[in-house]
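Sample A.
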Amino acid sequence: MKQGESSLKVTERLQQNAEEVITINCKYKARYVTFGCKVNQYETRCIETAFSEKGFVTASPEEVPDVIVINSCTVTGYGDSKSLYAVRKLRRDFPDSVIVLTGCLPQAAPEIQAELPEADIITGTKERKRIPELAEAALKERRRIVEIPEYGGSDDFEVMEYRSELSEGGGHTRAFVKIQDGCNCFCSYCIIPYARGRCRSKPPEVLREEARRIAAEGCREIVLTGINIAFYGSEYGLRLVDAVEMCCRTEGIDRVRLGSIEPEMLPEEDIRRLSELPEFCPQFHLSLQSGCGRTLKAMRRRYTPEEYYSLTRLILRYFPEAAFTTDIMVGFPGETEEDFAESLAFAEKVGFAKIHVFQYSPRKGTSAADMEQVPESVKKERADRMKALAAELRRRYLEKQVGKTVPVLFEREDSGEYGHGYAPDMTLVKIPGKKEKKSLRNSIFYVTIEESSFDHCTGRIITEL
């Protein structure tokens, strides 16, 4: 008993404390599963934050969650399969949990609700802030909820925030920031415009504030991402380079890099402005899809191989140390062996630092799904050949880094044996035998590259930036 405190007040205080303990112990627990791109990963963190604001806590791996949120991907048929498998497996593993399926799959294929009774809640890619509210309703009323609002022609960008301390490990050195949603392009193979609606951008004042918050949390690098970030800012009279400049001007942010960008949407004036930003990282992920002109036309892409190659040479004039990474699809409908050979030769001509290779997957509702399909065995064989070239190009690129001295932002350490970090061109750099007394994490050091391997380089620290 505190001095001067009556027995009645003591009783009231103890009762209040007991009620607080009960409240804490009765918090619902949620688990989150994410498939697909960096946009999905960002959105899952925002959903997690929304649940936290409703009083939910994140379930540990050992705990049985009250709610499981599965953020789905539908870019490929394989993506669909992984999401559906996860729903069914988690239902078997956690029969009493409320299972939420959200994301691109149900938005693009709302009919999925009829064949997926294992999901208690099915939502799409709109109004994600309502998911915690729907989960509470399902927990209390034990009823199934299907809400998949359709997109119109003038939807606003849905602003959602996340708190990095909720993320696994917390205190990240690099933060992904979603600045754009939707796509207006309608490539013949792509379902995403149906899953995400038309292009819309994060308001610039919201982006500025988010960059400031990220810097205040100690994060030193920002990666701008979205569904088609090249279209950023059209509603506000802005361009993508304006978003980069906003983040570069944020005190505490040392690096800014771009996610995937459409090659026809990067004019020389924007490249010049980017070259004047010391914080900008010259890694350009220019989505290629195919190095064959005939295939690109059938895909309804808006550039030729010649135009793509000219862009890479233009970028090199402003960024001599630029790294080019890309996505290449194999087995597009109608792709002949000659077409594939042309794509293979073009990839080698550009000299990509890294290539994500994937096989074409028919998406219901797209025009390519009705074209003559390439046999699966042929797709696999071509994918294997393109991956072999990608590995060789990666090896060559990393080999060229030997002897250079580059600034490396260190992200993690492996039991004191290695420090891991990334150069501005996104080369993974390791330093063996860490001897420093302080942690290297979230520090930038100049490192001289001494060796290369198939997926990283090794070097020694020269000095701190």
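Sample B, a different protein:
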Amino acid sequence: MINLNDFRTHGHQLIDWVADYFENIQTYPVQSQVAPGDILQQLPAAAPAHGEDFDRIFEDFQKIIMPGITHWQHPGWHGYFTANNSYPSVLAELLTAALGAQCMSWSTSPAATELEQRVMEWLRDMTGLPRHFSGVIQDSASTATLVSLLTARETKTNYAINAGGFQSQPSFTLYCSEQAHSSIERAVKIAGFGRESLRKIAVDENFALLPTALDEAIISDLSAGHVPLAVIAAIGTTGSTAVDPLKEIGTICQKHNLWLHVDAAWAGSAMVLPELRYMIDGVEMTDSYVFNPHKWMFTNFDASAYFVADKAALIRTFEILPEYLKTKEGDTVNNYRDWGIQLGRRFRALKLWFVIRSYGVDALRQTIGNHIRWATDFGRWVDEDAQWELLAPAPLATACFRYNPHRSDDEAALNKLNQRLLESVNRSGMIFISHTTLGTKYTLRMVVGQTHTQQHHVALAWEVIKTTARKLEH
């Protein structure tokens, strides 16, 4: 077992290793090169009966675990969306782990609660959200969406489903675009509505939800005896980063008395740039809004910023007060255990506090703005090369494109070619990109947003992609 002196020695050792890792991360292949089962077969089938030496454990970490790590913090990471960290965030996580606080209520850690309250106010104001919004940190946007739909459900039924279940309740319907994240469908299932209650609304040529199609679907459901409940709008869809027309959607929701939730999981961080806030025009009409600082604000996973217009409705949906949770402070303080699904809560606000204070709002704007500029450069390079096609608008820092060297209209062949290209690029270990499907087109996605990515990394990615594509032609 490790004693305090060992802890001090090995702690210094690990900090040095982490610093070396950050310094040398570009020497690692971005995507792990192991095959399925390679790690598992190196791990003993049974736990050790006796404690092992730390040096041996750490040696196995480097020998067994590290080869199976895909390096999300590599500046060549351009896949999915980023899951960033930063030096201040990592240091704050160390303190969070050391404190080991369970931050379910004010009394269990007053500093954790009050820091979370203040940091969420900072985030609200930094991103141009309405001042009447109240915020709480959730673990992910998926959880936040589920929390939103549960609150919508209870608000609509005067909290009857919490009390008695779905018996004698109407047939609810919910709405999102065809391009919305899969977590919405999952939330609809978990919340008890059933997948068949979700209406996936058609999108326009820019892959944004069509307000006229939404209105027509709501009217049709009303005529069929259903009860329309909620709309989930996207600011930056996962596939193409399309931006749904929030103001028009909000007007429709107000007309039909529907709950409106906004999923801005990735793009929401970019609202630190005032010139981009046209994307959330109409946000004052929304009931809830989520974005993830752990995607594009250089803060370790997990840290999802969830905002609500009516915190009383949120609390009433989730609060439960057995005797062992009662405290003398009562409702004079925020008890965040009642603001979501989890009773137990980590001290997530600390890393956000460290990051925001270490960067400052100006540097956050500059860094995110650079990512957008460099992604715009990438999109221009694609557009100017006759062998490549841009497949969607790129309003932020994600380019959707494909290789089409002969301007073919054989979609099946193009899909296979681009799938092979993706696999070859990622297998190289130099960069990592991901894909989606837009319509019937297999689409490559290039995301710029990793904490330490610079302009030359974006240029390198384009060269790697082009060089790999040319090799496929021979």
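Observation for Sample B: The chain is about 40% helix and 15% strand.
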